[in-house]
Design a protein that fits this description.
This protein is mainly alpha-helical. Helix content is 45%, strand content 5%. The protein has a domain at 28-69 and 113-221: Cytochrome Bc1 Complex, Chain D, domain 2. The strands form 2 sheets. Strands 1-2 form a two-stranded antiparallel ribbon. The radius of gyration is 26 Å and the shape is globular. The termini are far apart.
Length: 254
């Protein structure tokens, strides 16, 4: 009897521990946002994606790479060919070797990948107090909660509540698991000047850059959704046709 009671208590404690770990793994809840790309008819907001690129280019690119994109990909969100050439030419790309066997720097081209902010991970860690800024190419798809989570982190900086043990060098964030993050608050109002005159508030910039990063992680979303709708329409017509054939074949047997 005592052994059975001890076993039940052990199971209960283990279940409680597993449950607590699961709750901790879930992380903080983030508020659901409205996104133009949600739903089966969702599309990327080109204007928002272009503004989001401006935020990435002026702010995020100082620490975070976007290594899976080429500059020419920006034409897919509405940048002209000339604008893309100008954006790429503003970057310095290491190339070579030349005829003398030496590496050299040249202006970027539309065919180049986005230029990373650091030559390697060691330098990146040294510049960020040991923390390695992640590549943002698929960050939205890689994080639970997707765009809502990234938006929550961008807008979730606040003063630590009384009694919270915030480690030195870290920042309090309401959306980040554990509420302690190494990245300083990246945005302040009006730090980016939008070409279309949109007011660059922290929520607006966060929303725009998340739209851009969502597109960066899934640039083929719109063609995929269009194909899915065509397939569903085809299957619907095929089902109706097969049902009509079935009725015709079996009508004389009733």
């Amino acid at each position: 009897m005592r052994r059975a009671g001890f076993a039940c208590m052990t199971v209960a404690i283990a279940a409680l521990a597993v449950g607590s770990a699961a709750l901790a793994a879930e992380g903080p809840k983030v508020e659901k946002q409205e996104w133009s790309f949600d739903g089966i008819f969702g599309r990327y907001d080109r204007a928002a994606a272009q503004r989001g690129f401006a935020v990435y280019n002026d702010v995020c690119s100082a620490c975070h790479s976007l290594g899976l994109l080429h500059y020419r990909d920006l034409e897919k969100i509405g940048f002209s060919e000339d604008a893309v050439k100008e954006i790429a030419a503003g970057k310095s790309v290491q190339d070579g070797p030349n005829d003398l066997g030496e590496m050299y720097e040249r202006p970027g081209r539309p065919s180049d990948n986005f230029v990373p902010p650091f030559p390697n991970d060691v330098v990146a860690r040294l510049a960020n107090n040991g923390a390695l800024p992640p590549d943002l190419s698929v960050i939205v798809k890689a994080r639970k909660g997707g765009p809502d989570y990234i938006y929550g982190v961008m807008t979730g900086y606040a003063d630590a509540p009384e009694g919270f043990n915030l480690s030195p060098g870290l920042f309090y964030n309401t959306a980040f698991p554990g509420h302690q993050i190494a990245m300083p608050p990246p945005l302040v109002d009006d730090m980016v000047e939008y070409a279309d005159g949109t007011k660059a508030t922290v929520p607006q910039m966060s929303h725009d850059v998340v739209t851009f990063l969502t597109w960066a992680g899934e640039p083929e979303m719109e063609p995929r959704k269009k194909l899915g709708l065509k397939v569903m329409l085809f299957l619907g017509l095929l089902t109706a046709m097969l049902y009509a054939v079935k009725r015709k074949v079996w009508e004389n047997l009733h």
